[in-house]
Write a structure and sequence with these properties.
The complex is a heterotrimer of chains A (359), B (243) and C (288). Chain A is mainly α and 359 residues long. Chain A has two domains: 1-44, no CATH class; 52-328, ABC transporter involved in vitamin B12 uptake, BtuC (Orthogonal Bundle). Helices cover 75% and strands 1% of the residues of chain A. Chain A has helices at 8-19, 30-44, 46-49, 52-78, 86-103, 107-131, 136-156, 182-203, 207-217, 219-224, 229-255, 260-264, 266-279, 286-304, 311-326, 330-352, 354-358, and strands at residues 166-167, 257-258. Chain A has a two-stranded antiparallel sheet with strand order 1-2. Chain B has 243 residues and is an alpha/beta fold. Chain B has two domains: 3-80 and 156-242, 3-Layer(aba) Sandwich (Rossmann fold); 90-155. Chain B contains nine helices and ten strands. Chain B has helices spanning 43-51, 73-79, 96-104, 111-124, 140-153, 170-185, 197-203, 221-226, 228-242, and strands at 3-14, 17-28, 32-36, 58-63, 66-67, 81-83, 158-162, 189-193, 206-211, 214-219. In chain B, helix 3 (96-104) runs parallel beside helix 5 (140-153). The termini of chain B are far apart. Chain C is mainly alpha-helical. Chain C is built from eleven helices and two strands. Chain C has helices at residues 2-32, 39-57, 61-84, 92-114, 139-161, 163-173, 175-180, 185-207, 219-232, 237-258, 260-277, and strands at residues 129-132, 135-138. Chain C has a two-stranded antiparallel sheet. In chain C, a hairpin with a 2-residue loop joins strand 1 (129-132) and strand 2. In chain C, helix 3 (61-84) packs antiparallel against helix 8. Chain C is globular, with a radius of gyration of 19 Å. The chains are: A mainly alpha (359), B alpha/beta (243), C mainly alpha (288). Chain A binds chain C through residues 81, 83, 128-129, 131-132, 134, 136-138, 140-142, 144-146, 148-149, 152-153, 155-156, 267, 270, 273, 277, 308-311, 313-314, 316-318, 320-321, 324-325, 328, and chain C through 35, 83, 86-87, 90-94, 96-98, 100-105, 107-112, 115-116, 215, 223, 226-227, 230, 261-262, 264-265, 268-269, 271-272, 275-277, 279.
Chain lengths: 359, 243, 288
């Protein structure tokens, strides 16, 4: 133990050990804070060393992580598996876009309206689902059906621009929620993700956060301990929906075009889940790690396999399947498990041949 | 001593099957009441009806002077009723401390306060060395103790224990008996389902017996052990089992 | 009145095909408690298998059905063996996502292999309609309905009159108990999944004479099949059949009175109502 001081390899080992450690409530230690700081700095300085084309990938990672984090708040923390988060994403995108294009309402106000609309719809979906005690696959199917309902409505209503979708005029005005350059959008996405992630981190160590995970772990026990499960599930769903709406508005303002399929397709709902699965469902940094792995792979396969339309999606599906089969707790869970195994081996070795282990 | 819980004519039916049939029960503050009966007698269902898991089909339940027949589980907990489960129901991926904190939040808002109470409760049940263990990794015995700590952390007036001694070693049973007495002495009334007769007879002020959903006997432990009907329907076989 | 009658007949004929596909979902859920999100993609696979067999051997989809069934059974058997058996008993959402991942893989593999173009199967002699007064009956749909009836009876016989069926039903009620009775549960799961996928594939094959085939053509049926399976009571085979016919008719009527694009909406609303009012379904046990 004493020899570990000022010993570089051991220092590094210790650093790694600490950086990959986790308490069940996800409290961060200093090495972890350093890693996070370095990652943030790398993103913040990205415009100085990355081309616009590469910045686009960074923006994709950040927004994908943000949307996944929204899903994580609801489904990761409280364990109610939503398969229809596209509904909230789409409502956010459509509300701000239609208000802006047809009624000249500033997108910043549209953003707030979108959050309100998504929140109200989430309250209705949540009330119907949780009041009637829908769980597991049934809840997943219900959210999926609600999402499809919105797709059908938006596709077939002329007032809502029908199947042709909504185009938003390009501008460079930050007052119109367009951030001028790729770098501008990247900073905006970074701020969104950082705020939500910080919130996720903080809330885990509050009464509400602990109640969320208690409901996930065992709803009956939670109720017996005085938790109004209905209320807390509603809070999680509504909050998650409102942030998803922000993701939708941001998408619309960045790509300047939306249609019912882009917004409400089940692939959109899946895209809110996959990063969490890869990184680790219900963990604070899982969605970010997942997005940071998934999006570059998608980008790469998309370019490399462009001669075979669809092959990149095959890879996407394979990643999802393999991750679920090999590391169902995601990368974070896998690292924890491997560490536990490794420590155990080390311990066994130590107890078997103490002399060797000392040297 | 006032009446803490009064169940009158509590009946619970499942699709034609009457699991609990018109059971009357009064529990005074500070008592330990034992609830026994053969398997399938409706003991756990009676618990579930009182605590609001499956609200009673007929009858009424009064707790601490309020009618709680139609209240839900979490409201009953807020009112001062806590329980453990026949099959342990831990928050598996959380630490022991966090498990108990969930209970402590029943009366608190502050995270640090809840942590303090939870620590006290874990020490109270004698598990301070497992404070930060992930609960899924603990033994059943420890999980049962933890469930008691968790229930106590809600600051209940009435604690319902559902077979907390099942599957424990004789030493553990001894410890649990001590623990239950300690809990009662701290001012909590206890209603407990138990199959370990020796422990139950030692602990209970009164024992009630359910058979086929019906209350067939009620009295002090010595009265119950001499009751013909109870021996016939339950004790006989139970004593045989213990040989 | 004629329009009403016409819509009923169209709806019920179509509902039969829905019912068969939904029966697959119900069977799979009943035995393994898996909600198979890949069902829609497997309907598409069934269509392409039928298409390939028909063009290669120059036969009609009806003659190709046995081959389709064998191929689909093998696909289902190995999906269960390789991907799902290792996941039995873990948290349900993992299985859900796994089948979703499979759906993405299958759908896009088809896109890679067959490209996005529309394909169709022509069945000589079946492109005319039967006329009964003012009512027309689409011949391929009628034939499909007959096949659906035969295959449903076949599955009923397998489940209720054979030892295999007994093993499947035992597994669906109590996998642990079944294991104790010497039933090899993983193999039964593979067979049950295979049978469920046969239902999807046959439904797909029977649709080929009446619709274009493209990589996402099964997706329209995916959620609809869930609607039917849940409406009829997940795990309940007769429920799936009855619900299939009802949903087919409802869809047909709402298309008639509200317009085709809104008929989906009606179906989904029925779904949500079922979920909140009686999630155990039309013929399911009463909720507690």
């Amino acid at each position: 133990m004493q020899t570990e001081k000022n010993n570089t390899p051991n220092f590094l080992g210790n650093f790694l050990k600490k950086a990959t450690s986790s308490t069940s409530n996800g409290k961060l230690n200093i090495p972890q804070l350093i890693v996070i700081g370095v990652a943030c700095l790398a993103v913040l300085l990205a415009p100085t060393y990355l081309s616009n084309y590469r910045l686009n990938l960074v923006i994709t990672i950040l927004t994908s992580a943000f949307f996944a984090q929204c899903w994580n708040l609801m489904s990761g923390y409280t364990g109610q598996f939503s398969f229809g988060h596209a509904a909230f994403f789409g409502l956010g995108a459509y509300t701000s876009s239609i208000l802006y294009v047809d009624f000249g309402v500033n997108p910043w106000i549209g953003l707030v309206c979108g959050m309100a609309v998504a929140g109200i719809v989430a309250a209705i979906i949540g009330y119907l689902s949780f009041h009637y005690n829908l769980k597991g696959d049934y809840f997943a199917l219900a959210t999926m059906a609600f999402c499809e309902i919105f797709r059908v409505i938006f596709k077939n209503t002329d007032f809502l621009h029908g199947a042709s979708g909504v185009s938003i005029k390009f501008s460079k005005d930050i007052g119109l929620m367009q951030f001028g350059s790729k770098a501008g959008f990247m900073y905006a996405a970074f701020v969104l993700l950082a705020l939500l992630t910080f919130g996720m981190y903080k809330i885990r160590r509050t009464k509400m956060g602990l109640y969320f995970v208690a409901i996930r772990e065992n709803e009956d026990a939670a109720k017996a301990l005085g938790i109004n499960a209905f209320k807390y599930k509603m809070i999680a769903l509504i909050a998650s929906a409102m942030f998803s709406a922000v993701a939708g508005t941001f998408y619309a303002q960045y790509y300047l075009y939306i249609d019912p399929n882009i917004c409400f397709e089940s692939a959109v709902s899946v895209s809110s889940i996959t990063p969490c699965i890869i990184g680790g469902v219900g963990t604070v940094f899982g969605p970010i790690i997942g997005a940071a792995i998934l999006e570059p792979i998608s980008e790469f396969t998309n370019a490399a396999l462009s001669n075979f339309v669809g092959l990149n999606m095959v890879v996407y599906g394979l990643i999802l399947v393999v991750v679920i089969m090999v590391m169902p707790k995601g990368l974070i869970g896998l690292v924890q498990d491997l560490k536990v195994k490794f420590m155990k081996k080390k311990k066994d070795k130590k107890s078997k041949s103490p002399v060797e282990a000392e040297g | 001593m006032g009446i803490l819980l009064k169940a009158s004519k509590v009946t619970k039916k499942f699709a034609g099957l009457t699991a609990v049939n018109s059971v009357d029960l009064e529990i005074n503050e500070g008592e330990i009441i034992g609830l026994i009966g053969p398997n399938g007698a409706g003991k756990t269902t009676f618990f579930n009806s009182i605590t609001g898991f499956y609200p009673a089909t007929y009858g009424s339940v009064t707790f601490d002077g309020n009618d709680i027949t139609h209240r839900t589980t979490y409201q009953n907990c807020k009112a001062g009723m806590a329980r453990t489960f026949q099959i342990v129901q831990p928050f598996g991926q959380l630490t022991a401390l966090e498990n108990v904190m969930v209970g402590a939040f029943n009366r608190l808002e502050s995270y640090s306060e809840a942590e303090k109470i939870a620590r006290e409760m874990i020490i109270f049940v004698g598990m301070e060395d497992k404070m930060h263990a992930i609960v899924a990794d603990l033994t059943i015995g420890d999980q049962r103790k933890l469930e008691m700590a968790r229930a106590l952390a809600t600051k209940p007036k009435l604690l319902l224990l559902d077979e907390v001694m099942a599957g424990l070693t004789p030493t553990e049973i001894e410890e649990t008996v001590e623990l239950v007495l300690k809990i009662r002495d701290s001012g909590v009334t206890i209603l407990m389902i138990e199959h370990i007769m020796a422990a139950l007879m030692k602990l209970s002020d009164r024992v009630i017996v359910l058979d086929h959903g019906t209350l067939i006997a009620e009295g002090t432990p010595s009265e119950i052990t001499q009751n013909e009907r109870v021996i016939e329907s339950y004790l006989g076989s139970a004593y045989k089992k213990q040989d | 009145m004629n329009a009403f009658l016409q819509a009923s007949i169209d709806g019920i004929l179509m509902g039969g095909v829905y019912a068969l596909a939904a029966l697959g979902i119900s069977l799979i859920f009943g035995v393994m408690k898996i909600t198979n999100f890949a069902h829609g993609a497997l309907i598409t696979v069934g269509m392409y298998v039928a298409y390939e067999v028909c063009t290669l051997l120059n036969i009609t989809p009806y003659i190709a059905l046995p081959i389709v069934m064998v191929v689909m059974f093998i696909i289902g058997y190995f999906i269960q063996k390789i991907c799902l058996n290792p996941l039995m008993g873990v948290a349900g959402h993992n299985q859900l996502l796994l089948t979703q991942g499979l759906a993405i893989i299958l759908e896009n593999l088809i896109l890679v292999i067959f490209s996005a173009g529309y394909k169709s199967v022509s069945v000589p002699g079946f492109d005319t309609a039967i006329k009964l007064g003012d009512i027309t009956i689409n011949k391929p749909k009628l034939v499909a309905f007959i096949f659906v009836t035969v295959i449903t009876i076949g599955i009923y016989v397998i489940l209720n009159k054979t030892d295999l069926g007994k093993a499947i039903r035992a597994t669906s009620v109590q996998p642990e108990g079944a294991t104790l009775m010497g039933i090899v549960v993983p193999r039964i799961n593979q067979i049950a999944f295979g049978l469920g996928i046969v239902c999807a594939g046959v439904a797909g094959a029977l649709l080929t004479p009446t619709q274009y085939i493209f990589p996402t053509s099964g997706n329209t049926y995916s959620l609809k099949c869930f609607v039917i399976a849940v409406f009829g009571g997940l795990g309940n085979i007769w429920g799936a059949i009855v619900a299939g016919l009802i949903i087919g008719a409802v869809e047909s009527f709402s298309a008639l009175y509200l317009g085709g694009s809104w008929s989906e909406l009606v179906v989904y609303l029925i779904f949500i109502l079922t979920l909140i009012i009686k999630p155990t379904g039309l013929l399911g046990k009463k909720a507690r």
